[in-house]
Amino acid sequence: MRKEALFRAVGNIRERCAADRFPIDSRELVMRACRNPEIEIIHFSDARIGGLLCREKNVTRVALNALHSGARRNFFCAHELIHYCLHGDRAKMWVCGDPSGGGVIAGADAYAEWQANAGAAELLMPYARVIPEFADALSVRRPFFREQHLRDMYESMARKYFVSGTVMEYRVNELIYETIQYVSGTPIEQVTLMSRREQSKRGVGRYSPLSVYDRIHNADTSAMNL
């Protein structure tokens, strides 16, 4: 499943759960979408674990790591919901890792975990909202643009979506290729969605948030490879 198809599937999940107000509480979506759901907050011994999903015959159990903040747990809960909706026939149990640390627990299906991370991000932070908001934030010209400005932006945007700053940073960086298209004049409805893996296969140049800032303020005059 490519990024465009994944985001379309996530949009269907959001619509089915009537999740049209932000921030989204992913626990409410689990209660609406899953069969006989039970959500627990428990202490895992490893902070790299965000949570787990266990599909039993008559109940769906979601466990979230108490070592993380409520904002981080909101993302992890959405991650497990994506597993439930998209990967229900592939395994009865899924253990999710922190996307800011790679997001894949040893022995896990890396592709399914990418889908769950990217899907959870799209569920809580739709690209059609996040890209224009990030571009607007970058449109303010600063004499010296530093990484701290980016971190402040991530934290500010994260509060709007009830996720952590590191999750917002992950989201923004996963959408850099699409953001470059947007600030270069492509309407948000027409941007080409492409995973980093697909970008690499096609030889698309790598961009960063600083590349977006430079593009907005005409500081980067290099040719695009889109």
List the topology elements:
Elements: H1 3-16, H2 26-33, E1 37-42, E2 49-55, E3 60-65, H3 70-86, E4 93-97, H4 110-124, H5 127-138, H6 147-161, H7 165-174, H8 176-183, H9 196-201, H10 209-216
Parallel strand pairs: 1-3
Antiparallel strand pairs: 2-3, 2-4
Helix pairs in contact: 1-4, 2-3, 3-4, 5-8, 6-7, 8-10
Short description:
This protein has 226 residues and is α+β, with helices and mostly antiparallel strands.
Keywords:
single chain, 226 residues, alpha+beta, Arc Repressor Mutant, subunit A, 10 helices, globular
Q: How are the strands of the largest sheet arranged?
A: 1-3-2-4
Under CATH, the topology of the largest domain is which? Arc Repressor Mutant, subunit A
CATH architecture of the largest domain: Orthogonal Bundle
The shape, in one word, is globular
Oligomer: single chain
Helical percentage = 40-55%
Percent in strands: 5-15%
List low-pLDDT spans.
Answer: 219-226
Q: Determine Rg (CA atoms, Å).
A: 18 Å
Distance between the termini: 21 Å
General description of the model:
It is a single chain. The chain has 226 residues and is α+β, with helices and mostly antiparallel strands. It has two domains: 122 residues, Arc Repressor Mutant, subunit A, CATH 1.10.10; 90 residues, no CATH class. Helices cover 50% and strands 11% of the residues. Strands 1-3-2-4 form a four-stranded mixed β-sheet, covered by helices on one side. A hairpin with a 4-residue loop joins β2 and β3. The longest helix has 17 residues. The two termini are 21 Å apart.
